[in-house]
Structures are given as C-alpha cells and as structure tokens.
Structures
1.
Amino acid sequence: MSDLKDAPTTVDSDEVARFSALAAEWWNPAGKFGVLHKFNPVRLDYIRDHVAAHYGRNPASDRSLAGLRVLDIGCGGGLLSEPMARLGAEVVGVDPSEKNIGTARVHAEGSGVPVDYRCTTAEALAEAGERFDVVLNMEVVEHVADLPLFVSTCASMVKPGGLMFVATINRTMKSFALAIVGAEYVLRWLPRGTHQWEKFVTPAELEGYVTDGGMTVTGRSGVFYNPLADEWRLSRDMDVNYMILAEKAGV
C-alpha cells in the first residue's frame, strides 16, 4: 500500500488553518460569516427547488428532501447542512477542520437537527465508496489545493441520476473589485485574506472539470447582492458569484 502522505490531496492546509481560527464565528449572523447568513436563503431556495423538480417532490413541503442522501462537502459550521436536514434529507457534513466540525456538531445537537458530521476529506469518502443523491459543493472550490481532482472526486460520489451543485466566484476584474477589495477591505464583510483572486475559477473552467468528471451541466445562475433590499438574488450576471447544477446520467 502506498504511503498516504504521498497520495494526492485536495486539502489546502493554509485554508484549513484560516477557517479553523474562525470556527466560533460560524453561527453568529453579525460575525465574520454574516455575509453567508444573508447568502443562505438564495442558495437554499435554488437547491431545494431544483432537487424537488428533479426528484418529483413538492418544494413547498417541509419534508421535500425526505429519503435523499445529501453530502455537504466543506460544510464549515453547518450553515447549509442543518437546513437540508430540516427538509428531511439524510445529510453527511464533511470538513477537514476539526474545529469547524466541533462547532457544527454542538450547534446541531443544541438545535435537535440530525446531521452526520465527519472530519475527513472528499478523497477519503470516495475511497470508502460513499455515494449520494445530491452533492453540495458550495463556496468551497476556491479554497482547495487541486481543483480538477476535487471536482472529479466529488462527481464520483454522485449516484447515477443524481445531482451536484457548485457555487463559487468567477475570476474577473469585477470579482477582484467586489469580492476582495469591496467585501474584505471596504465593507469588511469577510476577514482580509479569506479569498485569493488567483484561486477563483471561471464558469468555463469549472464546467470543463465537471464534464471531465462524467457529469452534464444542466443549469447555471449568477447571484448578486441588492443593497436596497439587503438580500442576495439570482441573476443572469455570472461575473462575480455564480452557481452551476450538474446531473449524472442514470444507469
């Protein structure tokens, strides 16, 4: 058996350390991750509506995801995992940071929400043969060490006929101005250094990796912040934040 230290990894240890240092902030809507709390409703609606349509569910039902196995990869403190579980999904929340997983577990236990949180990696899950109806890959790909490997590994865990959602930030001058200078230095929505512009990924690049992973992109949407309404909304503009939806062919 080869030495695990020599095995390819998608984990960026610097990124893990950066987010581990902020672990206590995950569930504070006025804290360091406040922007994610505001971002959550639009991505939750996008995921729920598309999953419900794909699997023939009623999106208005409070158990619209019942019976579906969902992976939230790079789950952080569980901001997305818990709402998915409340909708009835069997959720596995994974993060390489022990501190993040600890925060997520404590919050879920206090909320009475059943989520299977694990401190592990996408590679380890895939090697163990884990498979899911839905894989959520949200605001993660811009923080990994090997993007093509990470996307293909996540895609390999999607069951035939299943879905994968990916949300990230485009690599444009507009994203540098808004997502880094604006969000981190001017508005201070995020701690400085949260993002590195060179690790942002264009839709064309991301869709290429998804296709190479054996999936077909079936949906895409930009997301923008409306300051007057103080909320995030879907948009045709994918110059900064965007989401894509991919499907794996059935057997």
2.
Amino acid sequence: MVGTLFDKIWERHVVVPQRSDTPAVLYVDLHLVHEVTSPQAFSELRRRGLPVRRPDRTIATMDHSTPTLAGRAEKLFEMADAAAFSQLEALSRNCAEFGIRLFDLRSERQGIVHVIGPELGLTQPGATIVCGDSHTSTHGAFGALAFGIGTSEVGHVLATQCLLQRKPRTFEVRVDGALRPGVGAKDVILALIAEIGVDGGTGSVFEYTGSAIRSLGMEGRMTICNMSIEGGARAGLIAPDDETFAYLAGRPFAPRGAAWDRAVAIWRGLVTDEGATYDRRVTLDAGRLEPMVTYGTNPGMGIPISAAVPAPGSVPTLDRATHEKALRYMALEPGKPIVGHPIDVVFIGSCTNSRISDLREAASLLAGRRVLEGVRMLVVPGSQAIKRQAEAEGLDRIFVEAGAEWREAGCSMCIAMNGDQLSPGQYAISTSNRNFEGRQGRGGRTFLASPLTAVASAISGRVSDPRPLMETQR
C-alpha cells in the first residue's frame, strides 16, 4: 500500500485507531519539556500520585523565561522577575523529583528546546515528538512528526507516553527552482504563509518537497518547518536524506555503530511513495522569490521587500477589518514602500533563526560595518553549544565591534517574558516567528525577516534590502 511520509509515521505510532467518535491514541517517542507549560502538568501528576511513564524519553531545558545576560546562573534571583524565577525553580524541582534529565542554566547543553533537540541528536527521522510549545514543528525537518501540545496534554504524555489525536490531512508544499542571492529559508516560509494565509494549512500536516527544499542544509530546513504552525498546519515534514544523516552522525544521542547502520536503513524508507496522493498541494517558484518582510500583526501579512504596504481589501487571505486594525497598530500607511521605514531594535535569535549558520550569515554581512547609532541590536545564540562555536569562530567579536549585544542562549526577545523586550511604540526587525500585538513587548511593533534583512536594517536604521550590501562584498 502506497502512502505519504506522514501516513507512514502515523501508522507506526497508532496504539488505538481513530474511530468516528474518538481520536486515535498515538505513541510519543520523545517528549521535550520547558519551564512555562510544565508546572501545572507536574502538579497534576503529584495530585494523582502518578509517576512519569518514560523519563528516559523525556528531556527538559530552561529557555523561555531565562534571562540572557551574562552571569545569569549565579544571579538568577536578581535578573529574573518573580514569575520567571518561580517557573525555573519549579522545573528544577520537578525534574529532580520525577527523574527527568534537565539542561539547566549551568549546563553546557542548555538552549532553546527546538535547537538543542536536533543538535544533540535527540531528534531523529520517523519519530513522534511533542512539546508544550507551538514551534515543535521545527523537528519535522528531520522527517519526524512533531507538534506542539497544551499543558493538560503535557500531563497526559508525562503519565502515559501517549496522546489523543485526530489524524490530520496531508498538504504538499512544493518549492522548485533555485533561490537567488539574498533569499533564504526564512523568505521561503514567509512567502508561503503570505500566499495561503495563517489558516491555510488548518487541519493539515505540510510536507515540503521540491528541488529548492532539497538544496537547503538542515538548519534552513528547520527554519521552514519551524513556522509551519504560522500557516495553520499541525506540523511540517521534510523527508530525510543524506543531508539529514550527515547532520545526525556522531551527535551525542544518535545511534552508533551497527545501530546507526540499522537506523539509516530504516530512515531511507521514510519517503512519500510514488503514486501516493495528498489532500492538497501548493507550488512556489523559488527563483521568483525576494527577501520578505511582514508589515502587520500576524505572519501571513508579509510582502516582498520591494513592495508597498497593501491596502485593506486587496489581500485575498485577509478580511478588511483585521487588515485595518493591523495597520493602525503598526502605524503604517497603505501604498507606502516598506523599505526605508525607521526601526529601533534588531533581534537575531529564536528557535527560527539562532543557529550557527544564521549567525555566520549575519556576521558575514555585518563584518567591517557598524550598527547605526541609536539602534539597539541583540544577537542571541540558540544554545550554549552554538555560543561556544560562534565564539571559537570569532563571530561574537564581529557583532560586538559593530555595536551589537552578544547574549547567553535562550528565547530572548521572541517572547517578552525574560527581560528582553521592546518599549511601547518601538519598531523591531526580528528573525523570530511571531509578530502579534505585544508579542515582543507591550506596544512593540515587529517586522519579521531573515538574518540578512535584519543586519542590513541594523546598519541603515531602516527596513532595508540586504542585496545591495551583498553586491558591494563581491
């Protein structure tokens, strides 16, 4: 029987099949835990006298509420607000009590949950992976079925290692052709979401295919899968290939020796069969894409950087009232170019764009240049391992000498709950994944973009196309 990549993973993990009146019971291979969505779940286990079913398949890290200032492990009480400190302390206690491995602020493996999973080799093809975080879809870049769950579901998985789920539909996103200089993975996913809207993938799992996807390295693939949820999808998948296997080989939790050979033999079968059908398809031409930037208050409000701000009523995936409200919040005028709009803050980081390739790309454009006076730029690596690698390569010096702040690993300004945030009315160019009202600080206004666009904007102090600066480097 032919099937899609999604079908194969789903069927291998069904414990109890779905019926008309009940969802399926799905087995979970890996449960990732952090400090924000887990306290209530652990409290429920404690109340009911339940242990964690599979502590060996559960990994925790501190990331969302963690300050990113130097010395945070020693001065956490002083740096974190009361809520953040309480969450971090609770995670430490809960992991100790229930026997869960925790990468805390003193661990050399600490980092953003969706960054450390892949870099440690915990994320593997064919696995089911869940976490109490929307961007768990990141792990789909490895051919894993990965999705976010709510706090009550976190408790369910801790107790049973299973989850109730209804089977999603399949949705092929095919991206063919070659990306032009200055255009990368972030621009691909923003272009997709702009085309289909934030609810275009509702009830579906994206499978990304095509020559442009295959040409991406693993970190670019993670960027694309990371934002699948922003297009309404339950998850995003890319079939594993030699690029995947090369990335995983030798990672701390990856199989070794004969076990590695057996695993790769199985992983090579994780592809959509010829003749298998999807419930829906959409195609993008990579060669026609430009650097993208958002202008509104959801990730679907994106445009090519050369375009003007659209007028309400002109975007098929947006209703007029939502569009008008977004433009009022962003204080933008329809018909005016997005390029040249002043900015106050630049953020490079998050589970979308904080990996070593993102930092190398940003540093390559910033080297020998300066962040415009009056603009604040934060560069936040996604993990301690990435931070060490960047420092070994001298990337931190490039950022600091240009006038940027080099921080400790964490979610940082992606979400305003750790001390890194915008002030009311400030504009930010951000490599993160969400531009909702107040997401980066009450009254803050966010333009989502790639690391290259973020750096070009930091240098000019305005929303800027990175391609002219890239031309001068040739």
3.
Amino acid sequence: MDKVEILAFGAHPDDVEIGMGGTIAKHTSLGYKTAIVDLTRGELSTNGTVEQRLREAEISSKILGLYRRDNLGLQDRNITVNPTNIRLVVDVIRKFKPDIVAMPYWEDPHPDHENCARLVKEAVFSAGLIKFKTEYESHKVKQILYYFINETLEPSFLVDVSRVYDRKIQAIYAYESQFIKKTGSIKTALNDYFVKFIKNRDGYFGSRIATDYAEGFIYKKPRKVDDLTKL
C-alpha cells in the first residue's frame, strides 16, 4: 500500500469531517494522499444504523477525495487504551507511513473523542519504536495535530479552507442519518443546530486570518524559527 501524507483518526464516522474536512479536501486537491481511520462504527448513535453510517462514510470519502478510509470496529463508548488496541492502531500507522497524524483535541465533552486522542497518541509513540514488534516495520510520524470537534479554543495555527468549504459541508451532510432531521428521526444536537455551530466556528476562525472560513489546529511541538522576518 502506498504511503499517505496525512492520516486522520476519528472516534466515529463524521468526526474528522467536522473538525478538518476542509483541510482534507484542500490537500487532496493539491495531490496529497490522505486517509481517514474511524475507530468505531458509531453504533450507539441516536439515529441511523451501522450500515447507514458506513454507506454515508463512503459517500463522504468520495466528496473529500480520500485515498483510503478504514474502520477498526472498536466498540462505541468503549475506546480503551490497552495493549491490544494500541497494537491495532500501531499497525495502521505503520501500514500507511504518514508524515502527519491528526486526531481529536484531547479535551472534549464526548469521552470517546478524548479516548481516541489518548489511544492514537500512545500508538504514534509505539509505532516509532524499533523493538515494538508488529506485522509492519517501525515508522516515526513527523507531526501530530489535534483538530476540534465540539470545542472552540485558541488554535496554534489556522488553515484557510474557503475555496473548498462547500465540499466540507457536503461531506458532513453526506451523513444524512446524523445531520438531517427526517420523519421518524429523533431530534438531536447534530440535526438541530450543530452544522450552524460548525459554520460559525469556521467563519470565526476565518475572520482571524481575513478570509471566509478556516479550520483550527493545536500543535504541541515548538516551531523552529531562524529568521523572524519569515514568520
């Protein structure tokens, strides 16, 4: 399998689209190979079935232009940091050999998003250890990024996604069972106001860099600067 430049993890199908769908669409348009790995099938979601969500994820993936999308099939609301799950995610990282790994911001109202970040962070570290033996050879990730799902915090940097923003929203609405209120569906935050929240947040981030829409990321690693005039 070819390596990818960007590998994004989400606890559930649609998490990555919410946090960085525009950034993915922008980079696939630039020719970068990008993959998404969903840890669970979102089987405990109020609306929709597992089969629906998997079909919706396929549609969304085509909209974003993904190189590949996988689902690890962990149990929804039971994402635990244990040796078995760490090894599972390590193999995914080593298989794709990404330069950048993205995951949800580590503080979020949904425990699954927080546990996704913890699990993937552990796996990124172990993936780089030569003596941590799995099916694939060790691989050191160059950068770890955190994207926002429910939070709006001060980002380390912002990505202008104005030109591809329609694709982000299309990718989100591909999950009709979650974001579109239909006859027989139960009213939730997702199908009531959440897309408006996403647009408002991305619009606010965009205003910070004098553009229409942007997505924010947290980047823990210090940035090396040799020339202040090139900041």
4.
Amino acid sequence: MNRTLILAVLTGLAMLVFAGAPFVGTYDVPVSTLWDNTDPAASTVLWQIRIPRVSIGFLAGAALAVSGMAFQAMFRNPLATPFTLGVASGASLGAVLYIHLGLSFTLWKVSGGSVFALAGAMVSILLVYGLTRLRRGFSTTTMLLAGVAISFFFSSLILFIQYLGDFTQTFRMIRWVMGGLDRGVGFDDLLSVLPCVVVGSLVLLYLTHEMNLLATGEELAASRGVEVNRTKLALFLAASLMVGAVVAVCGPIGFVGLMAPHICRLLIGPDHRYLTPATLVFGGTFLTICDTVARTVMAHTELPVGIITALLGGPFFLWLLLGSTRQMETA
C-alpha cells in the first residue's frame, strides 16, 4: 500500500477522532452546542473541559510518540522510550516535592505543580547531558547509563518523600504518578505545552534524514557526512524538551512512546521521512482514544489514562522483547 495513502488515512482517522471525542462522555453534549449556547452547562463542559482535554491529550500523545521514535533511532534500540533518560522521574520528583511542601501558587497561569515538575525535568536533562559530556564525545552508551542512573536515583527520592508524607499527600503523589489528562480546566495547560511540542517536532521533522542514517549505525552516518554528536545532541534536547513539558502537565503516561512508533513502522515502514509524521498523528490519536475510554468505561468516575496505556503497553512490551530475542537467536 502506498505510504502517502497510509499517511492520509492516519490523518483522516486523527481528524475524525479529534472531532468526535469531545462529544463522548457520561454527560450528554449535543453537537449543536458548538454554535448554540442555550444550555450553559453543556457549553461549559464542551468548551472548558472536553475540548481542552482532547486537545492536550492529542498533543501529549503526539509528543510522547515522536520522542520515543527519536530515542529508538538514536539508541538503535526498539525498547527505548521517552522516559529512558530519566526525564519523567525528574518531573515526578518535582511534582512530589511540590505536594510534600504544601505549596499552592500559579505562575503565568501555570500551576505550581507543573512548574516544579518542569523544573525537575530540566534538572534531569542537565544532569544527563553533563554526565555524558564528562566522557569524550557524546556517547549514546554513556547517555543511556547516565539516564538510567538518574532515573533510579530520582525514583528512590520519590519513595522517600512519599514515606515522609501523610495519607492525603501520599494519595495525591500516587495519583499524579499514574498520569492523567484531568489536571485542569481551560486552555492554559495546552498553551504552556504547545510551544515546546511545536519546536521539538519541527526539529525532529528537520532531522529525518539524519535519523535514517543514525539508525543504520554511527560510523555509516559519519561517513555520509552526518555530524553525529551534534545530531544526537539536537535529538536529545528536542525529545527531552517535549517529554518534560508533557510530563509536567499530564504526569508520566507510559508506553505511548513505545507502542506508537512500532505500530507505525509496521504500517508505513522504517523511513523516518514518512515515519515521523505518521507517528505524530498516530500517537495523538492513540492517546485521545485511550483517554476517551478512561473517562467513560466506569460510570460516575474515570480511570487515569496512564492505567489504560499501561494495560495495553505491558503485553506489547513483552511481545517486542520476545520478538527481539528470536531475531538475536536466528542471527
């Protein structure tokens, strides 16, 4: 099947899901609410809750998916995820610390929890970058090990802070770490994430040729004229910026960045010129559908969307792991 046609089908599906998701939920909102304001309650639900939530969900899914694709190309590892380098752990540590300190403030219409989470993500990025630069060059192996070490260290600090907190604080911490799209009302969160996702996505779209070469090996990429270290740094910063911004607002929603790139590779192939836009579109569609299920599957309550993605991602990860093992045995 033609790759351009597949990309067009994915785009059409994304538009259909994005247009229909705001009208699905336990509270019935008719389509006429888009132009008719005779029902103030329905209008508030649509414009202040559902449309912003669907928008942030699509944006977060696209960012996590394309970041996972970039890390998989950079590390040449199909099991790499957006959270491999500890960005999610850093953001979670910042949010948990905010809850434990009992703070309550907003900064430029952004909640204090998101500000602390973004600061934690930036600290994680700087630490991983600094540890990687301590070694000569910009080794992906060193970066990977530094990211795993930072992730484990921050996770241990999160557990320590949870132990020190009272019951209410601990519940809020655990609920935040589950990941969800129900943090706020209105478009403020969307506007705070949008610039980071747009800039990061444009960088990755610009580097599709370099990602194709990096996926075949750094030596081959260098022989074809790619500035390997500079390209890896750009991929690392662009992907980490998107992940940090998304996790700061939505919490760590796992497995989107693992599943979406692989599904798109099966549909459209490994060429990043087509894979990158397909992953952006499919990732946003996937998380939007998961969140719609999460807020409608149980009456009078809703599941954190991170639970839905984890339930899907666990078996998917095992399938990938077993597939990689078989390939190694037959090689």
